[in-house]
Design brief:
about 400 residues; three-stranded antiparallel sheet
């Protein structure tokens, strides 16, 4: 018998909720102890599993999280749960940037966990929840199952408490439905568990550990889920330590973003989140996702130049090209080091003299490169720089 609380809730407007109670790399070239090539949450869990600053039980829990996401079925599952797990794994694509496995979505989870803990301590009067890597992986699998199936249903694979929701965009909006609305329901009718289960999971003082997953895609525009377990079931770290681990991990590399301006035809590449937000919210640039992952530092800088006359940006590792273009009368403005080159993933520079808009483009996508060079008149000018992954 499943020992965690179960309930289903239909929420307001477009929001719907469902509730059920390794080889090290060179210094500077990315997270240490990582051989995983997916550059997903699994990569983070492998990094945790090889992090000597963590206790052996937490490292083991992180290794279990990594294994679960790579299709290694937990031995504790019953026969029907194995079937459910297999169904979930058929939908897993760790390279999908829209999925709950993406590093960007992973980075958001701690804000939701902190919000839940604030409710627990300030309103429910119970202790904060610690964070288990395995519970994080379980939440990701359940959220991915719903994201890929374009709906909200619990696959009932793992014997853990769980809250699921769709259509919310922030911790405040999600927990307003999960917690405050259902708390009012519970106050008026404490036996009405079908519309109080999310609240009861969050406020349950018997739970000691949690995991969280989110993605901003799918039928409802977003899907998120939180898992719960009793103390001692899973090794864990405090929420504050988990935030510190995320900060340490993300501090070992840069995420490179790709944007597109449909008016000018230019693609822009940047690691600056503020630039991404400014251009997409004010200047009609379209966000096209993560282009690749760059080392935080290396001996090979990539320079960015800007031509105010044409509006074009150019990227180069060639110091001589940089000096030549920046010298008068070429009208290019030197914007300094944009990022660093290192790793095994090559990104090439393409040129089209007949292009009506900007004449340079950069890509690590073999399909895009092949299409542009065989059909659209672009010339492959060779490798421009290297990235850790894409």
């Amino acid at each position: 018998m499943r020992k965690k609380l179960c309930s289903i809730l239909l929420s307001v407007a477009t929001a719907v909720s469902l509730c059920l109670p390794v080889t090290a790399q060179a210094a500077g070239s990315g997270p240490q102890g990582v051989t995983d090539t997916t550059w997903s949450s699994a990569t983070f869990f492998q990094w945790m599993a090889n992090n000597s600053s963590l206790s052996s039980d937490v490292r083991h829990d992180a290794q279990q999280a990594y294994a679960i996401l790579h299709g290694n079925c937990p031995a504790s599952l019953q026969a029907d749960e194995v079937v459910s797990y297999s169904a979930q794994m058929r939908l897993v694509d760790l390279s999908d940037d829209d999925s709950p496995f993406s590093l960007l979505n992973l980075s958001d989870t701690i804000d939701y966990i902190d919000y839940a803990n604030k409710l627990r301590t300030s309103d429910a009067g119970v202790d904060k929840l610690d964070v288990s890597p395995t519970l994080m992986a379980m939440a990701e699998l359940d959220v991915n199952y719903n994201y890929k199936n374009r709906g909200l249903m619990h696959p009932e694979t793992f014997d853990v408490g769980e809250n699921l929701a769709g259509g919310y965009s922030s911790p405040e909006s999600a927990f307003n439905a999960w917690y405050w609305t259902e708390k009012q329901n519970y106050a008026s009718d404490p036996t009405w568990n079908n519309n109080t289960g999310h609240y009861l999971n969050i406020a349950n003082g018997s739970y000691g550990t949690t995991g969280f997953a989110s993605c901003y895609a799918g039928m409802y525009g977003s899907t998120m889920g939180q898992t719960f377990a009793f103390p001692g079931e899973f090794a864990s770290v405090s929420a504050d330590q988990f935030r510190s681990l995320l900060k340490e991990f993300f501090g070992t590399f840069d995420i490179m973003y790709r944007l597109y301006n449909p008016s000018s035809g230019e693609h822009l590449f940047t690691k600056d989140q503020n630039e991404v937000m400014t251009l997409t919210s004010r200047y009609y640039w379209n966000y096209e996702g993560v282009a690749w992952y760059a080392p935080k530092k290396s001996s090979k800088p990539v320079y960015r130049l800007f031509n105010p006359s044409s509006g074009e940006h150019l990227y180069t590792m060639d110091a001589n090209e940089r000096r030549t273009l920046a010298a008068a009368p070429n009208n290019w403005r030197d914007e300094g080091i944009a990022w660093y080159s290192d790793g095994s993933v090559s990104l090439v520079r393409l040129y089209n003299a007949k292009a009506s808009g900007f004449k340079h483009h950069y890509s690590g996508d073999s399909n895009e490169i092949n299409t542009l060079t065989t059909r659209n008149g672009w010339k492959n000018e060779g490798i421009a720089w290297y990235g850790l992954a894409k």
